[in-house]
Amino acid sequence: MPNQVAFGGKILAREISRAALIGKLGLVGERNATGDAQKKLDIFGNEIMVSAFADTGFVASIVSEELGEIEAVPGAENADYLVCMDPLDGSSNTDINGSIGTIFGILPRRKNLPAADPQQYYRTGAEQVVAGYIMYSTSTVLVYSIGHGVYGFTLDRDLGEFLLSHENIRCPRHGKIYSANVSHYDEWDTRIRYFVDDLTRPKAGKGAYSLRYTGALVADFHRCLLEGGLYFYPPDPGHKNGKLRLLYECSPLGFIAEQAGGAASSGEMRILDIQADAIHQRVPLAIGSVEDVALYDSFVREGRA
Ligand code: FDP
């Protein structure tokens, strides 16, 4: 399966890099299942990654950010696995040559249910057997885990192959960077505001955290994974449960974070323990270095000032 995902990633990397030249930038005028305006690259990315997974023969059905319903793979309804994916994460970055990504998580199929039964997907992220992402940036990187550590592969464009470049990635226990859309600061719960105030206040022997926010979860998470720190997207009045989707954003990246020694939390509980009850469900997310996420949790739980 990784070979087919890598193949989809290569095609997307190529099309993203020349999208401005071949009329693939901009909106299509529709909204996806979760209400976001769809871009041409969202649709193209979805088609490529659905075929990449479907062609493996191992995938019975697929949940995608760009599909309203669960899509059964014709002729493979009894295959062993299910895929949850966000084919193009951070799509606000497509038209400005910013970093974007593909996120995927793979669950074992429940044998006693039809492939497209929603109950197939109403489970916890801890049940994933593989998770990963592809980041399209100055280079294209495929990062994934089969539950035994996290490995990163960089696309060698001349060879047309992903080569191992990041062996057994370990997330530092804490960092110096935080990523969040602080335009929501005044709308956030006071506990989140206190947390940000605490991060940005210099302390003896320890400087204040710096803010970096790309607008693409994959890119901000990738930095946290390699260099430490945390990304968070808490609830705000426009996003009552946060903005990010449990099945195909939070759970796969939570799996990667934990496999690298980091953490992922809703503030109330471990992301991988949250039982899904809708395929496009949103949850609050804090993800990255284990100590930074624990600090976030302590503010959310104890309301520390
Ligand atoms: P996008 O909607 O552009 O796909 O997936 C949701 C996401 O991007 C994340 O990648 C990103 O971190 C976040 O939303 C950005 O949301 P804001 O614009 O509200 O900051």
The set of bound ligands, ions and cofactors reads: 2,6-di-O-phosphono-beta-D-fructofuranose
Q: Average pLDDT value?
A: 94
Q: What's the end-to-end separation, in Å?
A: 48 Å
- The total count of strands amounts to 15
Residues in helix, %:
25-40%
Q: Reading side by side through the largest sheet, how are the strands ordered?
A: 4-3-5-6-7-8-9-10
Residue share in β-strands:
15-25%
Unreliable spans: none
Write down the overall geometry: globular
Order of helices and strands: HEEHEEEEEEEEEHEHEHEEH
> Helical segment tally?
6
Sheet having the most strands: 8 strands, mixed
Describe this structure in words.
Strands 4-3-5-6-7-8-9-10 form an eight-stranded mixed sheet, with helices on both faces. A five-stranded mixed sheet has the order 12-11-13-15-14, with helices on both faces. The chain is globular. The chain is of the alpha+beta class. The mean pLDDT is 94. 26% of the residues lie in helices and 25% in strands. Helix 1 runs antiparallel to helix 2 (40-54). The protein has helices at residues 2-17, 40-54, 190-200, 217-227, 246-259, 290-302; strands spanning 27-31, 37-39, 59-64, 71-72, 81-89, 100-108, 130-136, 140-145, 151-156, 161-166, 177-179, 210-211, 230-233, 263-265, 285-288. It contains six helices and 15 strands.
What descriptive keywords fit this protein?
25% strand, five-stranded mixed β-sheet, single chain, binds 2,6-di-O-phosphono-beta-D-fructofuranose, eight-stranded mixed β-sheet, 6 helices, 26% helix, alpha+beta, 305 residues
Summarize the helices and strands and which ones pair or pack.
Layout: H1 2-17, E1 27-31, E2 37-39, H2 40-54, E3 59-64, E4 71-72, E5 81-89, E6 100-108, E7 130-136, E8 140-145, E9 151-156, E10 161-166, E11 177-179, H3 190-200, E12 210-211, H4 217-227, E13 230-233, H5 246-259, E14 263-265, E15 285-288, H6 290-302
Parallel strand pairs: 3-5, 11-12, 11-13
Antiparallel strand pairs: 1-2, 3-4, 5-6, 6-7, 7-8, 8-9, 9-10, 13-15, 14-15
Helix pairs in contact: 1-2, 3-6
The structure holds 2,6-di-O-phosphono-beta-D-fructofuranose.
